[in-house]
Amino acid sequence: MRHIETFTKITIEYITGPIPPPFCHRYKVEISKSSSEDYQVDLQLEYYDRDEITEEEIFEEGFSVDDDYSWNGNLPPVWGKEIENKLSLTNWKKKPSRSKDGSEFIIKITGDDKSEVLQPAVTRPWEIFVQEIIQAVFEMSKKEAPLQISFLPENSNKLNQKIDFTFSFAGRDLQVNSLKMRSKSMGWGEGQKLLKFIFSIDYLPENSFEKIPKTQGNYISPGDGLWYELKPNENANKESIARIKKLIETLNGYG
């Protein structure tokens, strides 16, 4: 598979499989490399089977009646090396098959005047990687802003003592701003680990606040415009309690 190293185009296709609307969707991502080493991306995102449910049901799940999306343009240069590393470090299988959940994920690699349809031996890392590309497209097209997460430590309810984290998928960059640190740029590897840690916690809307509460506590706003207290519920097990405690310590470390 020499053409993996000399590819001119990668076509990635994904179908969710047997999940109900409005969640079921498919996407196609084409990444083309030019002779000048620019990487152009073309995204086609489509939600299907929505004629089976009402508009009210679609809105109740947080969607709109037109969530299909398409865009094409150049990826920032930082993505070039990441894409090539992902290709070269992946173990491939030549006979694509559906995953256990019924979803399909296949990659067509074109290069050396030939094409080959492959599938990663382990698809989940690639699914995450492509989701990052899609999120980068949303940023570049101004459909969405970079992800903003804020943390307010205990014993402080003043806005100028917040720690703000800005995750840019387009630039593969994490910016941290706090009263002590001001502004600091960190590597995307650290950003990925922090995101995974932050979203290992269940944030329940019924326990949220629209504004920062006046009562003392450790509060986080994970990008949905709401605030949640980082506090285990009365039925939490030891693992959940330890995870929340560790997250508080980690976030405090950035201040």
What does this structure look like?
The chain has two domains: 2-140, 2-Layer Sandwich (Mago nashi protein), CATH 3.30.1560; 147-252, no CATH class. It is 24% helix and 32% strand. It contains five helices and 14 strands. The model has no long low-confidence stretch (mean pLDDT 90).
The succession of helices and strands, N to C, reads EEEHEHEEEHEEEEHEEEH
Number of DSSP helices?
5
Number of strands: 14
Number of domains: 2
CATH architecture of the largest domain: 2-Layer Sandwich
Name of the top-level CATH class of the largest domain: Alpha Beta
* Distance N to C terminus: 47 Å
Class inferred from helices and paired strands:
alpha+beta
Fraction of residues in helix: 10-25%
What labels describe this entry?
single chain; 255 residues; alpha+beta; Mago nashi protein; 2 domains; seven-stranded antiparallel beta sheet; 14 strands
Helix and strand layout, with pairings?
Elements (H helix, E strand, L loop, with lengths): L6 E9 L9 E9 L5 E9 L7 H6 L8 E6 L3 H11 L3 E2 L10 E8 L2 E7 L3 H17 L6 E6 L10 E6 L4 E6 L3 E5 L1 H11 L9 E2 L9 E3 L5 E3 L8 H15 L3
Antiparallel strand pairs: 1-2, 1-6, 2-3, 3-4, 5-7, 6-7, 8-9, 8-13, 9-10, 10-11, 12-14, 13-14
Write a brief caption for the model.
By secondary structure, this protein is of the alpha+beta class.
